[in-house]
Each structure stands twice: as structure tokens, then as C-alpha cells.
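Design job #97: recover the sequence.
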């Protein structure tokens, strides 16, 4: 699986450094060519000799003791850099663009993908500064294997333990052998919420964050699909390499969906579209009075029903449904009325969260419960189900 792949393993100063020996051994067993780069602090935990013996290659531990320039040479040589374990320190340095030692300099100098497997104390992992650094790196397309929860070196139980060897090796394989099973397919995804203006300063909207839709767009893109994402207001950054359209109101979303859907193989409507809008828009800011006010609301158009009316051949349509009562009954009703192939049912605990637990219902009535996990993981599973249909 990794024959002839050139992998640099960066080891930093964490107690988990000894676990990298096993990872390097496994990479070698899978026939990768491995060079280990160690920081000064890593050498306090494991000797370079151990890594040299297991990798069958010289360990690089300084910018200065070689005739050539290891950061440029290695940066160009490698197919992937895996920093295992990665301390809060290296994550902070990389997020700030600091290159003050061999590993940070190589990371900055390479164009190859970088995988980071953090390992640290639970309080460090929970620190918002660390989280900001992790999201910065994710925005620059660094890959992460999240740490596991369990007993830490301090004896405390919490999140921060280096992910298992199996998870780290799987991530390396996935990055180097991307599954391109959606190549040639056109995906249209809607995300986040729509908002309806009442007057120049006020809006009607809901709390949908867009995390599910953005995760689905990103997953489809990674698997080779051509993806268009139509998003209502959201604080998220659009995934790279997709066509992105920003909309605000449900009318704008409908217009964009109907414009794009004709060339689409799969439409996934995760957007929480406002069902009502004010009957009229007040050009001037509405002034408060002492009395209660009545605000006439009218229905917005149902976008999925408009798509159904277009009868697009071969189009698979997946809707989303958020229910707080009679969950399956209500979702099945929407599936039928809107002519969907699938509906993904979730509840209000999913709002704004990185995780969700969902039930996928297909048009035959078959239901499948997926346990709570990240929206990114669910995005893959939802795409798998749609693809298999
Ligand atoms: N949807 C749509 N157009 C609308 C409202 C919703 O296309 N005007 C889509 C959503 O994107 C979602 C699905 O329909 O994929 C279900 O949305 P939801 O708001 O849960 O259901 P509604 O049909 O609006 O019913 P209710 O608000 O009564 O739960």
C-alpha cells in the first residue's frame, strides 16, 4: 500500500515519542522509505540511534551538520510529512510560520501534504490558543489525526493521548492513496441558513451553522467530485477547490439551486431554509410602539419541491430534516412530499455542533441509525449511502 512512498516522520518532544518507533516500523513493513527528523527535545525521550536502526536511514536532527540543505532536499524528496507525536509547541510554531529548527523549517519548505498527530496533556489540548492554532493549520490544509481520550502520562484521564498506530497509519494511507470514487460526478450542496430581512437592520433566521453542508462539500471534493456549494450566511471558510456561491435569502438560494441543478448528479440540501418571510419589507427601520405588533408572514417557496418539478433524469436528491418530535414520522412525510431519494434526520443537539447522530431514511422506507460522531465522518457515510443507491 505504501510501496516506494517517501515519508518523513517528524518526532517532537513528547513522552509519546517512543510510540513513533512502532509507527516507523509499520511504515517500513508497508514498504515505505522513511526518514526520521527529530527535534532537540525529542532526543530527550528517544535516541536517534533507535530511529536510525528501525528506519534504516540516517536521522536528521540539525540544520547545520550536513553539507547540503536538508530542509530543501527533504522537502522536495518526500511524498508526505507525518509529525508524530506533535506537541503544542510545534503546532503553535507552524501556525505562526516560525521556522527555528530542523522540523519546523522542513515543514515550511515542503509542498507535500503534512499530517499532524498531536499528543499532550488534556489541559493543553483544551486550551483555546491551541485550538486556534489547529484551526489555522486546518485552513492551510494540514491534516490532523485527533488525539484519543484515555489515561495520560500525568495519570489523568482526558483527551490528549496520541491516536492509535492503526488510526495514524490509516490516515497516512488515505492521504497518499486518495479515494477518487466520485470523479466525473457533479455534486450540488446547500448549507447553513437563509435569512429574511424585515427592515434595513433586522432579519428572521435560524441557528444552523453550515458545518454539515461544508463537511459534505469537502468530503465529496476530496473523493474527486466537482462540487458546487451554495451557502447562506455562515462564519465558516469555504472548502478549497469548489465552486462557491454565497446567498442570503431563500429566494436567492432557490434561484441559484435551479440555475445549477440541471447539470447535477447529486443534490444534497442541508440548508435550513426559512419557511416564512415577512409579507413586506419596510424600507425604514421599524419603530417600536407601546402595543404588541402583528407581523404578517408568508410562506417561502419550497426549493426541493421546485427541483422535483423539473424532473431531472438521474438526479439523486437528499434532503435534511431537523425534528424535535415524531422524528421519523415527520421526516418520512417530507421525504415523500418533496420527492427525495434520502432524508437525513437529525435533532436540535446537532445545531452548531461538530458532531451529530442521524438517521438516514431512503425512499423505500429503510432506516439506518448512525451513532453520534463528527459531521465530517457522517459526511463520508452519507455520501457512501447515496453512492451505493
Ligand atoms: N427545504 C427547501 N425549501 C424550503 C424549506 C426547506 O428545500 N423552503 C429543504 C431543506 O433544505 C431540507 C428539507 O427541505 O433539506 C427539510 O427542511 P425542514 O425545514 O426540516 O422541513 P420543512 O419542510 O421546512 O418542515 P418543518 O419546518 O415544518 O419541519
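Job complete. Output follows.
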Amino acid at each position: 500500500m505504501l510501496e516506494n512512498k517517501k515519508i518523513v516522520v517528524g518526532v517532537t518532544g513528547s513522552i509519546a515519542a517512543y510510540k513513533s518507533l512502532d509507527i516507523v516500523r509499520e511504515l517500513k513493513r508497508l514498504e515505505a522509505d522513511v526518514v526520521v527528523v527529530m527535534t532537540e527535545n525529542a532526543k530527550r525521550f528517544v535516541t536517534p540511534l533507535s530511529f536510525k536502526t528501525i528506519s534504516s536511514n540516517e536521522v536528521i536532527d540539525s540544520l547545520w551538520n550536513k553539507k547540503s540543505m536538508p530542509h530543501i532536499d527533504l522537502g522536495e524528496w518526500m511524498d508526505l510529512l507525518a509529525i508524530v507525536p506533535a506537541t503544542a509547541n510545534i503546532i503553535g510554531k507552524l501556525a505562526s510560520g516560525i521556522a527555528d529548527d530542523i522540523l519546523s523549517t522542513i515543514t515550511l519548505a515542503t509542498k507535500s501534504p503534512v499530517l499532524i498527530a498531536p499528543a499532550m496533556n488534556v489541559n493543553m489540548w483544551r486550551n483555546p490558543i491551541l485550538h486556534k492554532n489547529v484551526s489555522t493549520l486546518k485552513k492551510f490544509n494540514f491534516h490532523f489525526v485527533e488525539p484519543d481520550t484515555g489515561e495520560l502520562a500525568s495519570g489523568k484521564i482526558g483527551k490528549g493521548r496520541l491516536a492509535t498506530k492503526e488510526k495514524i497509519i490509516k490516515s497516512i494511507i488515505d492521504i497518499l492513496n486518495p479515494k477518487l470514487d466520485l470523479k466525473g460526478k457533479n455534486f450540488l450542496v446547500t448549507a447553513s441558513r437563509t435569512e429574511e430581512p424585515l427592515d434595513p437592520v433586522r432579519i428572521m433566521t435560524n441557528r444552523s451553522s453550515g458545518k454539515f453542508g461544508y463537511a459534505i462539500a469537502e468530503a465529496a471534493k476530496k473523493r474527486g467530485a466537482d462540487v458546487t456549494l451554495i451557502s447562506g450566511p455562515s462564519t465558516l471558510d469555504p472548502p478549497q477547490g469548489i465552486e462557491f456561491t454565497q446567498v442570503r435569502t431563500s429566494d436567492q438560494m432557490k434561484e441559484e439551486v435551479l440555475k445549477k441543478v440541471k447539470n447535477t448528479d447529486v443534490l444534497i440540501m442541508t440548508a435550513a431554509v426559512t419557511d416564512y418571510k415577512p409579507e413586506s419589507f419596510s424600507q425604514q427601520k421599524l419603530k417600536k410602539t407601546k402595543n404588541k405588533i402583528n407581523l404578517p408572514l408568508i410562506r417561502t417557496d419550497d426549493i426541493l419541491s421546485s427541483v422535483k418539478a423539473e424532473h431531472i433524469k438521474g438526479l439523486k436528491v437528499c434532503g435534511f430534516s431537523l425534528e424535535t418530535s415524531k422524528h421519523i414520522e415527520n421526516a418520512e412525510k417530507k421525504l415523500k412530499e418533496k420527492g427525495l431519494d434520502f432524508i437525513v434526520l437529525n435533532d436540535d443537539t446537532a445545531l452548531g455542533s461538530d458532531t451529530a447522530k442521524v438517521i438516514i431514511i431512503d425512499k423505500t422506507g429503510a432506516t439506518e441509525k448512525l451513532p453520534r460522531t463528527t459531521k465530517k465522518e457522517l459526511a463520508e457515510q452519507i455520501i457512501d449511502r447515496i453512492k451505493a443507491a
